[in-house]
Write a structure and sequence with these properties.
Elements lengths: L2 E9 L4 H11 L4 E5 L2 E7 L20 E9 L1 H11 L3 E3 L3 E4 L10 E4 L12 H12 L7 E4 L5 H8 L5 E5 L2 H13 L5 E5 L10 E7 L2 H14 E13 L3 H10 L2 E9 L2 E8 L1
Parallel strand pairs: 6-7, 8-9, 8-11, 9-10, 11-12
Antiparallel strand pairs: 1-3, 1-4, 2-3, 5-6, 12-14, 13-14
Bound molecules: S-adenosylmethionine.
Length: 276
């Protein structure tokens, strides 16, 4: 069976790429690779009909410019194509995120992720910076929540850094299932994966919360996150741009969280706050 590869160039990249991915997923596209300037999406030839893209609303949104070309990929090349596009990532010299088919490196932390459709391979700036925070800070014996866990890459690293117990939560069923697989694949025994959102969190307490989601969800759910943090607890937030940092800081201040520091990469931010 052949696949058709769509190579989309997207301007501005976000949120258009995320919306595009979600819409294509609904239409039968089953694999995606984030690229520097957009998205590659794959659909089985038999599921593709000529007017299918007519139903992708983001393509007609005047706020975004999205162009694409296509090519047919024979099944025999499919894995190679995917492998070529998903290269291992090394963060801070001591953490490698790789797929099962990549060779192991010499890094202290070796994380194996089969991303399928979930976000979180370390290729995105936000995941990369959250990994930097986790590598830098003390996680030993800490009770951790990874909110919006995607592939659970951050929870997996937190457990490798000595944290436990850990909860990894994602609203998306695919991410929930993928996180369970990835936790097992990395021999993590302290991670509990759940499907849901902030409504799961009443009466819970964590020493550390990691939340790489997006600006609006963070602003909306900050009160709940803050209530779940123990005194002197730490929260790492990402998924928003530099221009929104003041807004995030202001909401954190309202919820009794004090700004500590932040990283910036490709205009994305990963910020650290502490509960007073
Ligand atoms: C930017 S990805 C981050 C994935 C991973 N934590 C990482 O750092 O690579 C955001 C994730 O949040 C999930 N998500 C979106 N809204 C959510 C919500 N209200 N509660 C929990 N998860 C949510 C999405 O399904 C997605 O997997």
């Amino acid at each position: 069976m052949n696949y058709i590869e769509f190579n989309f160039k997207v301007t501005p990249l976000q949120p258009a790429s995320d919306i595009l991915l979600a819409e294509l997923g609904e239409l039968g596209f089953d694999s995606f690779v984030e690229t520097e300037d957009g998205l590659q999406a794959y659909i089985l030839e038999e599921y593709y009909k000529e007017d299918l893209l007519k139903y992708v609303f983001v393509l007609n949104n005047p706020e975004f410019e999205i162009t694409y070309n296509t090519k047919t990929i024979e099944q025999v090349n499919w894995n190679a194509e995917w492998e070529k596009n998903f290269t291992p990532i090394v963060v801070s010299d001591n953490c490698r995120v790789r797929a099962p088919f990549h060779d192991k490196g010499n890094e202290e932390y070796d994380i194996i992720i089969e991303p399928k459709m979930s976000f979180g391979t370390g290729h995105h700036a936000t995941t990369h910076m959250m990994i930097q925070h986790i590598l830098k800070d003390d996680f030993i014996g800490k009770k951790v929540l990874d909110m919006g866990c995607g592939t659970a890459v951050l929870a997996i690293l937190a457990e490798m850094r000595g944290a436990g117990p850990l909860d990894a939560i994602d609203i998306d069923e695919w991410c929930y299932l993928n996180s369970i697989e990835n936790a097992e694949r990395n021999n993590c025994t302290k991670i509990t994966v759940e499907q849901g959102d902030a409504s799961l969190l009443s009466n819970r307490k964590y020493d550390i919360i990691i939340a790489n989601i997006n600006r609006n969800i963070l602003l909306n759910d900050m009160k709940t996150y803050a209530n779940c943090l123990s005194k002197d607890g730490v929260i790492y937030l990402s998924g928003f741009y530099e221009e929104d940092l003041d807004l995030i800081k202001s909401e954190c201040t309202n919820q009794g969280l004090t700004y500590v520091n932040h990283y910036v990469k490709d205009q994305w931010v990963a910020a650290k706050f502490i509960k007073d």
